[in-house]
């Protein structure tokens, strides 16, 4: 069995929480084990991420609560207005809501009637708007779960490599939860992104090189004694981290009145989010929280980084890596780890994977803003743009209930829309000038 | 009696809603009349903002719900997770939640234990974090109410003058609620702010001049036939608009378990927010929703625009205008309309008005970020900085429950912190370099 021992138990009683040097004492609620997604082998809960037999990715296996689903719904409804209302379904201790954390989630599910009219959707169109999270992206969900795993394993430093949203989410959550953070970024990021990563007061290290160099460096650090006691949220804590995306599935169904949507449009970067939303939906069915019925999952990529979409359309099972070149930088993962699983899910559920080009991304950002007053990140432009394209292609049924994800905030990708977004007119301060501009009505 | 007739009833059945050309049919829920804050004269509900007898400011007078407070609490708890849960206490129709609007509010009240430790607060410190609103500032609250007033009065265009937060809030709410918007800004705003104002697709007009010129132009427009059918959210809709700030008081008390906080620290720009929060607290007491007890209200300003703070400390009743010069631009109103009322309230409740300089604002932004993971706008730096200063001066009692407002988002004022916020180190991608940088532990 395979729990990597955590050696920094001396530091255990910091604000980050008490250490669990003995894996047997780890309390992560209903999480029972890690299980390999390829060969099914099970491992004790610990900071490991790859199967020791086949190197497949590990995910959390649960002893989910048995009993009357109506009781569970009541228990959830009585919980806090954040992801911890779903603690019985997550790898977190039962008293998680009393621990300091960033408490993301329960973001708005916006009934998007104006957008529905424009797209011709008649069956009910919703935007799940994760820009309402504490650092304004869905990353707060996954990081919040990683924080609790880090606490359980006695880690004292939280880390990640990042070019954007993740750095801010880790910095903010670490600050509040009482961890030290040390985040690695390419040294030449734009100043705005550096500020968002640095403001929370953790260590921020610019690495002289590109994002690949940063990742390579982090891999070395994890394997070195220098990295002992470090929780890299999306590497050695990845199995837990990933589970945070399930909360999107839970919230969508609860906000729809404990009903499965017919269709979901989800952005694909590594593919993890899409696979975990599918996992979450299946859990809700298994628990009897929603009635079982078919649902279709659609993946959305940017044309400039569309390895999964290309594979889907070519009928391939294998995803061929691409060198990303798109304004949708938060989706720009050229070699997506969960790509094959995304293909499986899209095909199994009768969905699809599609992509849109940068111009369509910008158009879709503006469409969502002018119809629903939601200013989305480029990733939100990708999902809205892909939704439109899928309807036009007859792949997404406009008569069915559809949920489109917006995973981030337009304030973070102003550059994408700035060149084409400006005043209608510029005039001197006089009524005559205003009348001449033709804007009075 | 004094309801300015709305002449655009021909356009009444737009997406914006049906017009109410006859003031008698205006349904704004419990709002019964407008009443002059100076002389008390009452007027029928309408798009007017100044007393026709004494030119004093008008505010909404209510027929508030009678009955068992516990029943009202239950009714509120059963409402939506936004400001419309308080519809029985707001100038909006009872079915407001079913109308398209931006639906702000019910933002997090964060128990700020880390910050409390740093500041020496032992009685419970909370940050009311309005960066979680749809366009990430408290302005969404006031604009959402103005939208319903505009709908009731049959207006079809929403407008305002703005240099920042308000433009985005009006643009977003108008887009979703089905109004045309036309917003006026100084022509030389930074590109980021222009994008945030323009992205929602309304008309955005750059005025060649400074903010005073923009305001003068808007005043002319309101008085001209060109402006017929236009609702200027903070001018002819101001009495309704202002009521949106009451929801901060309601939420804070409900989130504390229907208990009044002992002390509140509130930013002061025009002063409207502070006065309306006080109004909201008094309503809760009158309705029996909270137990009556003393509370102290503290106003917070930036030193570079501190007319109310200066008057408070000098013991004056009159506020002498200042020419603003501060990084806290969202508070930079040199001649605050509600300044004298702020002085009254601070003195009546045993509070104070204090200011901090720009360096202290930046320090406080960083303090809040590194303790609680909340990245505040400069206005949030002002309230946190003033809280620290008031504690040091012995004016704010650290043994009492204290709520500090953060009314906006740090992403909108990156420039304020950028010069002093950056990487801890920049290194080549090697473990040796990392070791040498002294960051491993």
Automatic annotation (TrEMBL), chains A, B:
Positions of region (Disordered): 1-21
Modification type N6-(pyridoxal phosphate)lysine: residues: 139
Domain of life (superkingdom): Bacteria
Family per record: Belongs to the threonine synthase family.
Name of the protein described by the UniProt record: Threonine synthase
Cofactor: pyridoxal 5'-phosphate
Ranges of Low complexity composition bias in the record: 8-21
Natural source organism: Streptomyces niveus
EC code: 4.2.3.1
Domain Tryptophan synthase beta chain-like PALP: 105-408
């Amino acid at each position: 069995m395979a729990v990597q021992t955590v050696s920094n138990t001396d530091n255990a009683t910091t604000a980050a929480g008490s250490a669990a040097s003995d894996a047997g004492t780890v309390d992560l609620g209903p999480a029972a084990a890690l299980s390999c997604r390829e060969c099914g082998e099970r491992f004790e809960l610990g900071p490991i991420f790859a199967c020791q037999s086949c190197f497949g990715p590990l995910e959390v296996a649960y002893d989910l609560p048995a009993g009357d689903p109506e009781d569970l719904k009541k228990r959830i409804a009585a919980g806090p207005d954040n992801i911890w209302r779903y603690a019985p379904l997550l790898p977190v201790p039962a008293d998680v809501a009393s621990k300091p954390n960033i408490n993301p989630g329960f973001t708005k599910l916006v009934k998007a009637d104006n957008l529905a009219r424009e797209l011709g959707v008649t069956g009910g169109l919703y935007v799940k708007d994760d820009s309402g999270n504490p650092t304004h992206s869905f990353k707060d969900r996954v990081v919040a779960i990683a924080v609790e795993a880090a606490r359980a394993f006695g880690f004292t430093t939280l880390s990640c490599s990042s070019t954007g949203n993740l750095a801010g989410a880790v910095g903010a959550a670490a600050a509040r939860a009482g961890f030290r953070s040390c985040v690695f970024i390419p040294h030449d990021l734009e100043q705005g992104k550096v500020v968002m990563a640095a403001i929370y007061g953790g260590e921020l290290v610019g690495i002289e090189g590109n994002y690949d160099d940063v990742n390579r460096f982090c891999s070395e650090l994890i394997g070195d004694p220098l990295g002992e006691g470090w929780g890299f949220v999306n590497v050695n804590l990845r199995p837990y981290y990933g589970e945070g995306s399930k909360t999107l599935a839970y919230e969508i169904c609860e906000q729809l009145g404990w009903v499965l949507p017919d269709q979901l449009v989800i952005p694909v970067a590594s593919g993890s989010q899409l696979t975990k939303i599918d996992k979450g939906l299946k859990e809700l069915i298994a628990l009897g929280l929603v009635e079982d019925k078919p649902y279709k999952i659609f993946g959305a990529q940017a044309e400039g980084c569309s390895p999964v979409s290309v594979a889907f359309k070519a009928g391939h099972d294998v995803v061929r890596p691409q060198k990303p070149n798109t304004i949708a930088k938060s989706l720009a993962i050229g070699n997506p780890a969960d790509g094959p699983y995304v293909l499986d899910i899209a095909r199994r559920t009768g969905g699809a994977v599609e992509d849109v080009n940068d111009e369509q991304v910008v158009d879709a950002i503006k469409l969502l803003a002018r119809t629903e007053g939601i200013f989305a990140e480029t990733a939100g432009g990708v999902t809205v743009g892909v939704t439109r394209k899928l309807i036009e292609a007859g792949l997404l049924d406009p008569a069915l209930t559809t949920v489109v994800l917006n995973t981030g905030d337009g304030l973070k990708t102003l550059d994408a829309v700035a060149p084409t977004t400006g005043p209608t007119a510029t005039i001197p301060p006089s009524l005559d000038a205003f009348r001449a501009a033709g804007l009075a009505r």
